Structure formats: structure tokens, C-alpha cells
UniProtKB/TrEMBL annotation:
Record-given protein name: Uncharacterized protein
Lineage: Bacteria, Pseudomonadati, Pseudomonadota, Betaproteobacteria, Nitrosomonadales
Length: 101
């Protein structure tokens, strides 16, 4: 289903992206990083990619620029709330433009 946003609506959405610092966030939140002490006394690092964890990817793209963030349930709360608002708005727009049966 395709629908359009008004210019004002797009600016409002873009301002909301800036408000939650979307463009400053890391691209992945489904990685678990840790440090550990090796037998020789040095410190090692470990990165575990949690592929079996449900995740959401949110992307913003315009012309040649794209920023995507993948997060799971323990990701940024502000981003999750904003994502739910966007989906709710998209559902309302899609339902408003759906043909009557």
C-alpha cells in the first residue's frame, strides 16, 4: 500500500528523528560486547551477535543517504516508541486510503 505524507508531516517526522538523536545512534543494538581476562593477564574482547533474538530495523533514507538501526527489545526505548507511532500513523493512512468493499 502506498500513501503520501504532507511536507509538514515529513518535517515533523524528521524533527522527531533528531529529537531522539536517531542519526547519532549506533547501527546495531543486537550485539553483546564484553571483556574478559586472558590466562596471560591481558584483556580480551568478545562480541556476540544475537541472531536468535527478535529485532526491528528502522531506516531513514533520502536520495543518496541512508541510516538504519537494528535493535531488539532492550534497544533504545525512545526509538521503539517512535517506531510504534510511525507504524500506527502508517496504519491509519493505509486504512484511510483502502477501497471500500
Amino acid at each position: 500500500m502506498l500513501f503520501t505524507y504532507s511536507s509538514e508531516g515529513l518535517l515533523t517526522m524528521l524533527n522527531a528523528f533528531y529529537k531522539i538523536k536517531f542519526f547519532d545512534l549506533p547501527t546495531r543494538y543486537n550485539l553483546r560486547q564484553s571483556v574478559f581476562l586472558k590466562e596471560d593477564g591481558s584483556i580480551g574482547t568478545s562480541v556476540l551477535r544475537m541472531v536468535d533474538t527478535a529485532s526491528t530495523t528502522v531506516c531513514f533514507s533520502i536520495r543518496n543517504y541512508e541510516k538504519c538501526i537494528t535493535y531488539s527489545s532492550d534497544g533504545p526505548r525512545d526509538l521503539e516508541e517512535f517506531t510504534q507511532q510511525i507504524f500506527a500513523k502508517a496504519n491509519r493512512l493505509a486504512n484511510a486510503s483502502a477501497p471500500e468493499e
